[in-house]
Here is the input.
Amino acid sequence: MFKKTIIWYKVFESEQQGFDLIPDNASIEILIGDRIFCMARYKGNFYALDNRCPHQGAPLSGGKCNENGAIECPWHKYPFDLKTGRFTLGPGDCVETYPVEKRADGIYIGIKDWCWKLFF
Ligand code: FES
Here is the structure.
């Protein structure tokens, strides 16, 4: 039986470190294992998304956040909601989003993982 779990990865040692690395309304790429994620900062909060734009595959990291809480792809400016990953101008593709937690010892991203388990 497969079981979905969330594995938490620390990406910043502190909130301040995240603020130092990501200006407000901006985004950077974050490497976790062999995967690259897009980490954005908007109104003092951090958001994590898949880094690949579903339109033509541009990296979302480097995109700016607009006033509606969406990240705009650097190539053609398609906006994706930071919380849901949905395209905000109508029906269409979306990007996966990941939970972000602020803890006493740093900022974490939760990545869903499927584990093969014999017994639960
Ligand atoms: S590649 Fe992202 S909007 Fe076109």
